[in-house]
Design brief:
The protein is an alpha/beta fold. It folds into 3 domains: 150 residues, no CATH class; 215 residues, UDP-N-acetylmuramoyl-L-alanine:D-glutamate ligase; 126 residues, Alpha-Beta Complex (Protein-Tyrosine Phosphatase, Chain A). It is 49% helix and 16% strand. It is built from 21 helices and 15 strands. The chain has a 9-stranded mixed sheet with strand order 2-3-1-4-5-6-7-8-9, sandwiched between helices. The relative contact order is 0.08.
């Protein structure tokens, strides 16, 4: 009974501290591909130089003065709980922990692990009180590894849950005979292409796209089970991957008849291992299409043109630069701060078609061309396509132009790849007035990271008036690239978080100011 107050305070402390760690685990896809372990390895100082180290001198102090250890340690953990709660509330949280059923199951397992020393001490062995306190402290101090262990314990249960939802999703798809599935993958541009295609198809059909970034097996199962209904004609499935075979796994789940490959770059190079593996993995979608299916490929992407594989489906090529062998291509592209106009040509059709869109950037023209090419094959008239493209809505956090007080904000926060970052800078350059970039750099570029960041800095140097870099270590090579290209060092600012950057922008702004928010990385990349 004497331990009850201490147990309650300890549990409260455990939940407060574990919340942040589980948030990072969730952002690292529950350690899929050992991403969470890699995160721990690269952030050892940040993780382990913390307030819990105060426990050791406090333990020595309690031992010396010989006070009631239960009372003493209840007070200590209450103190830690208040400090942790204060720090947690103060921290910038861009992507908060989502309390899914999986997270709840993980918390249940963790609770049992953290209660185990109390159970052993009360029911089985009377452990020395100071040894007991050290065990409790080690569990809390090493909570990352305790959570990894709990995650491993839960793997069989999670597999059973996954099999249940997979079976349910497959049965639902099998009972929808009139539904056709469209898969979309690529190193970047997947979400934009998916949303654009959905808007285009919905001028004639009832199309459903997987929401947000639901591009994993669980995400697609959830979409099918919770959102898909008998009235849908097309299901557009975004397909993400970090390693070879993951696109094939998604194709085996939903069996797409049509496929769009956006662009192949070096995104996730760290987990894929090589550019060749990235290329082969992305083409798993196109190779999974049936003979009566259609694959949309980009003639301007060398990695798509050079691919030699087993493709059974009919292929349609889109393009802008290498248009001679394209089935659908764009010319006369005119970009402005209001949007884009361009002319579309169809193979075996001498007529030209004028299109207008609110979207910015060349990559979005490719995404629109893919939607136009497939929409045309699915029986949507040219007039309907023109109307649909004009009504396409900007995708949230992807070159989204919006008003920010008395300034203009180009929100490209969800973009963290080399080509996409450079294209966003091109968009910023054509804007009138003062130009400010807020950049956190790029991620998962493996051994090419330093070079790519320096190249980005060089590319940025003649396109902005001010560069605000988030994270000293993450962006140090961007800064080097800027300075190497003779950018004024006084116009470079290195800060710790995006909130501070927006406070600084208010001091730097001119009469007409455009801000590019580039690659606002998740919390796991925070340096403090």
């Amino acid at each position: 009974m004497k331990l009850i107050p201490m147990i309650l305070i300890y549990i409260i402390y455990f939940y407060i501290k574990s919340n942040r760690t589980i948030q990072y685990l969730q952002q690292n896809r529950y350690n899929r591909g050992n991403k969470f372990i890699k995160y721990i390895k690269t952030h050892l100082k940040k993780i382990y130089l913390n307030i819990e180290l105060l426990f050791i001198p406090l333990l020595v102090f309690v031992y010396i003065i010989k006070v009631n250890y239960i009372y003493a340690f209840t007070c200590i953990y209450l103190f830690f709980a208040f400090i942790r709660l204060y720090l947690y509330k103060k921290e910038q949280k861009k992507i908060p922990l989502v309390y899914t059923k999986r997270v709840i199951r993980l918390y249940i397992t963790l609770t049992l692990i953290y209660m185990l020393p109390f159970i052993i001490n009360i029911c089985l062995i009377d452990i020395n009180k100071y040894v007991f306190m050290i065990i409790l402290w080690l569990l809390m101090y090493l909570d990352q590894f305790v959570i990894i262990f709990a995650n491993i314990i839960n793997i069989p249960e999670e597999k059973l849950v996954g099999l249940y939802f997979k079976s349910k999703a497959i049965n639902k798809l099998n009972n929808m005979g009139n539904l056709s599935v469209i898969g979309i993958t690529g190193s970047y541009g997947k979400t934009s292409s998916k949303n654009i295609l959905c808007d285009i198809l919905n001028v004639k059909y009832n199309a459903l796209a997987s929401p947000k970034n639901f591009n994993t097996p669980y995400g697609l199962m959830m979409t099918i089970n919770n959102y898909l209904d008998k009235f849908n004609d097309y299901f557009i499935a975004e397909m993400g991957a970090c390693k070879k075979g993951e696109i094939k796994e998604l194709c085996d789940l939903v069996h797409p008849k049509y496929g769009i490959l956006t662009k192949i770059g070096i995104a996730h190079l760290e987990t894929f291992g090589s550019e060749e593996t990235i290329q082969k993995t992305k083409f798993e979608l196109i190779e999974s299409l049936p003979e009566d299916g259609i694959g949309i490929l980009n003639r301007d992407d060398p990695k798509q043109v050079s691919y030699k594989g087993d493709i059974k489906a009919r292929v349609l090529w889109i393009g802008i630069d290498n248009y001679k062998e394209c089935d659908v291509y764009a010319t006369d592209i005119k970009l402005s701060n209001l949007g884009t106009t361009f002319t579309v040509h169809f193979k075996n059709d001498k007529k030209k078609y004028e299109f207008t869109t609110k979207l910015l950037g060349k990559n979005n023209i490719y995404n629109i061309l893919a939607g136009i090419a497939l929409g045309n094959e699915l029986g949507i008239s040219k007039e309907q396509l023109i109307k649909a493209v004009k009504g396409v809505k900007p995708v949230e956090h992807r070159l989204e132009l919006k008003r920010y007080y008395d300034m203009h904000l180009i929100d490209d926060a969800y973009n963290a790849n080399p080509d996409g970052c450079k294209m966003a800078l091109d968009v910023l350059k054509m804007m009138p007035g003062e130009k400010i970039v807020i950049s956190s750099g790029m991620i998962e570029l493996g051994p090419l990271a330093d070079k790519m960041h320096k190249d980005l800095g060089k590319y940025m140097s003649d396109k902005v008036n001010y560069a605000i870099l988030i994270g000293k270590e993450q962006t140090k090579y961007i800064k080097e690239g800027l300075i190497e290209n003779k950018f004024n060092p006084d116009n470079i600012f290195v800060l710790n978080n995006v909130l501070d950057a927006f406070n600084l922008v208010n001091k730097l702004k001119g009469k007409d100011t455009y801000i590019l928010l580039q690659s606002d990385l998740p919390d796991i990349f925070n340096e403090k």
